[in-house]
Amino acid sequence: MTSSVVSRFVIVVLALAAIIVGACSKGTETTPSPWINPPDDPTPTPVITTENGVTRVTVHLSSFEGAGQVGTATLSSSGDTTLIEIAVSPRASDAQPIHVHAGSCDDVGPVIHALRNVVNGKSSTIIDRPLGEILGGDVLINVHASFADASNYTACGPLPPQLASETGG
């Protein structure tokens, strides 16, 4: 009777050991499915999706000149208005001005649209313009360090002009 209990105990211990070793093994890493929230993952090229009549363009915001913040700008439109949502990190302690500018990240031009300030890493603004009008031409989204340090840019993301034709604008 005792050897039967010992045998069962040994089997349970070995099974648990096999489970632990299997869970701790490194194995091969797999690439996540491209269908799992692709527009939310920062990517150097814009991601364009259309679902239920809503066109969504997600643009990567890169740190400016190698220092600052990174994140995404997501522009969503189903008609005459466009929602622009910003998410950047790390979060700044002060509110940060943010704009849609003409030009490029290397040559920032005049402000085309002022957006709501980035607060705690987030901003959300509705613009009374269709997406195609916002994306027409060389434009970018630019995050400033703060009101006191508005000439210091912390993140930038270009909106290439080819997006206008791809989204029907």
Please explain how this structure is put together.
The chain has 169 residues and is of the alpha+beta class. It contains 3 helices and 9 strands. It has helices at residues 2-24, 131-135, 162-166, and strands at 47-51, 54-63, 70-77, 82-89, 96-104, 107-118, 122-127, 139-144, 153-159. Strands 1, 2, 3, 4, 5, 6, 7, 8 and 9 form a 9-stranded antiparallel beta sheet that branches. A hairpin with an 8-residue loop joins strand 8 (139-144) and strand 9 (153-159). It has one domain (38-166): Immunoglobulin-like. The chain starts with a helix and ends with a helix.
Total domain modules: 1
Outline: elongated
Output mean pLDDT. 78
| Overall strand count | 9
CATH architecture identity: Sandwich
Question: What is the overall number of helices?
Answer: 3
Helix content: 10-25%
Structural class: alpha+beta
The CATH topology comes to Immunoglobulin-like
The low-confidence runs, each spanning 5 or more residues with pLDDT under 50, are: 26-42, 163-169
Please give the CATH class: Mainly Beta
Residue share in β-strands: 35-45%
Q: Major sheet, described briefly?
A: 9 strands, antiparallel
- What is the end-to-end distance? 81 Å
Instruction: Write down the Rg.
Output: 24 Å
Spell out the helices and strands N to C: HEEEEEEEHEEH
